[in-house]
Specification:
Length: about 350
Amino acid sequence: MNPEATAHPVFCTIVPPHVLDKLARLDDPDRSQRALNTLEHDALQRTRRRITTVRALAAPTGAPSDKPNRTIYDAKRQEVLPGKKVHSEADKPSKDASVNRAHAGLGATFELYLKVYGRHSIDDSGLPLNATVHYGENYDNAFWDGQRMVFGDGDNDLFLDFTIPVDVIGHELTHGVTQHTANLDYFGQSGALNESMSDVFGALIKQYALGQNASQADWLIGAGLLGPNVTGEALRSMKAPGTAYDDDVLGKDPQPATMDNYVKTSRDNGGVHINSGIPNHAFYLLATDLGGNAWERAGQIWYATLTGGDLDKDAQFADFSRLTVAAARTLYGDGAEVQSLLKAWSQVGLPAS
C-alpha cells in the first residue's frame, strides 16, 4: 500500500449507532439530547470520510523502531482535532489520568503487535501513534478517524471515560491495521468482519497486557465503560454474544452468536456491530478449545488471514472461515488447530472447508 495515503478510510466508533439510536428516542430530554448530539457528530464524520482522501501520518524513514512514538493531545472538550499537544513519548506521567491511560493503551497495542506478530505499529512501518482525549462535551464515543484515536469523556451516567478499557483502544487502533492490510469494506458481512477483527485483537491486547490465558479472560469488550446507571457488563461479549447488557435504557444486547440468528438490517452499515458477534464467537470457541494464550495459535491464525493478501475487501463470513482454515494448515499442518477451527466454525453455522 502507498504509505502516503490510506485506501478507502472509514470512520469507526466503539459505541454502535443502534445503541445511540435507542437513546435518542428516550422520553428523557437530557439523555436523548446527548445521544442525538453524538449521532449527529458521528454521521458528519462518516460523511467527511467518504468524500475526503485521508492521508496517513508519515512513517519514519529507515528501519522502523521497536519502540512506540506516542503523542497525546487534549481537545479541552471542544470538537477540534488534534487539540493541544500535552504529552510526548519521553515525557513523565501526566497529572491527567485520561492522558496516562491513552498513552498506556497505545503502548499496549504497539507491544502486542510487535512482540507477538512482528508488526511495527499499525502500518508495519513504525507509524507514530496519536490520540486526542477530552473530545467534545459529554461525547459518548471513541473513534479511529484514519489518522488518530479520539476519546470522549462520556457523560458519567450511561458511559464513563472512553480511555478506561484498554481493549477499546486496541479495538480502534486495529481498525487502522485492517485499513493498512485487507482494507475490508465497512458494510454487511465484510464490515462485520472489520468490526470483529477489532474486537478480537482488542481482546488479545487486553489479555496480553494482563497476562491472562484464554480460560482466565472475561472475553468482554468495553468492560468498565458502562456508567453507574446501566445494567450490564460491557458493550459486547465474545463468550456469549447477546448477553453483555440488558438495560431498561440501553435495551438488550442484540448480537447473535450463530448464523441461525443473523440479523438482516439496513441500519449500522448493514449490522456491522451486530453480526460481528458470529465471527467473534467462533474465535472465542477456537481459543478456549485450544487453551493456553489466545494470542498464540488462535491469534496467529487470525493475523495471518488478515494480513496474508488473500482476504478480499468484500469478503463474506464463509470466505473468511475458509481462509482461516487454509492459514491454520499453513501454520500448523492438519493437527489440533485445524480440527478445533473446523469445530468452531461449525458451531456458529459456517462452512470452513
